[in-house]
């Protein structure tokens, strides 16, 4: 008598959940940066959409995450962001709170940036330019993916600011914004408060 074989479920990973964070309502400047050749490694991020940031170690296991997410929800568009959360957590046997807690490493506002300093900043820019005489907010966080959260949330509360740089790959994530002191201080306070409220370990 013939028997059918059932497809075995993927084995539970020996993986560490590092970041598991939802970005809501992607803002105009941030979504444009995400869609740049350097920022986007998959489908283009669109203004007003939502995304899920997931970082796990070892890094190559993210391919299994993408595989599971797309099979569970074929309408998703994979990029740096956007995967289906319940499937991921079930596969890892983890909760969202098992991620690493963000640690703010640096937060400062530079007033009246010099022309020499602006030249240095603009040589490695990925977004807009910083101009001499502007004020600039600098923030750095670990793990790096929280850099995306900082940039998107800062733009929500102070959309008049200019996103000069956002990095979210590597040891830490960074954000550079320029604008009025009042808006920079508002964005700084908002982001610092949000990071302090994100649950996690460590």
Helices and strands, with pairings:
Elements: E1 16-23, H1 28-34, E2 51-57, H2 62-72, H3 85-92, E3 103-110, H4 115-122, E4 135-142, H5 146-157, E5 162-167, E6 173-179, H6 181-197
Antiparallel strand pairs: 1-2, 3-4, 4-6, 5-6
Helix pairs in contact: 1-5, 2-3, 5-6
Describe it.
With 202 residues, the protein is α+β, with helices and mostly antiparallel strands. It has 2 domains: 16-98, BMC (bacterial microcompartment) domain (Alpha-Beta Plaits); 103-197, Alpha-Beta Plaits, CATH 3.30.70.1710. The chain has 6 helices and 6 strands; from the N terminus they run βαβααβαβαββα. A 4-stranded antiparallel β-sheet has the order 3-4-6-5. Strands 1-2 form a two-stranded antiparallel sheet. α5 (146-157) crosses α6 (181-197). The longest helix is centred in the last third of the chain and has 17 residues, at 181-197. It is globular, with a radius of gyration of 19 Å.
């Amino acid at each position: 008598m013939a028997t059918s074989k059932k497809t075995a479920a993927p084995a539970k990973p020996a993986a560490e959940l590092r970041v598991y964070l939802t970005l809501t309502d992607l803002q105009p400047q941030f979504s444009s940066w995400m869609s740049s050749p350097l920022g986007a490694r998959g489908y283009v991020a669109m203004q007003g959409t939502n995304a899920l940031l997931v970082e796990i170690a070892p890094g190559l296991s993210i391919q299994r995450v993408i595989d599971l997410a797309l099979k569970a929800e074929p309408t998703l568009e994979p990029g740096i962001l956007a995967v289906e959360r319940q499937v991921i957590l079930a596969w890892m046997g983890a909760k969202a709170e098992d991620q690493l807690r963000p640690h703010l490493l640096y937060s400062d506002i530079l007033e009246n940036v010099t022309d020499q300093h602006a030249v240095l900043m603009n040589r490695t820019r990925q977004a807009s330019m910083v101009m001499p005489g502007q004020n600039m907010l600098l923030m750095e966080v670990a793990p790096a993916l929280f850099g995306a959260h900082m940039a998107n949330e800062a733009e929500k509360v102070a959309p008049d600011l200019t996103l000069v740089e956002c990095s979210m790959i590597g040891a830490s994530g960074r954000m550079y914004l320029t604008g009025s002191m009042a808006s920079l201080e508002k964005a700084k306070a908002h982001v610092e408060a949000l990071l302090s409220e994100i649950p996690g370990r460590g």
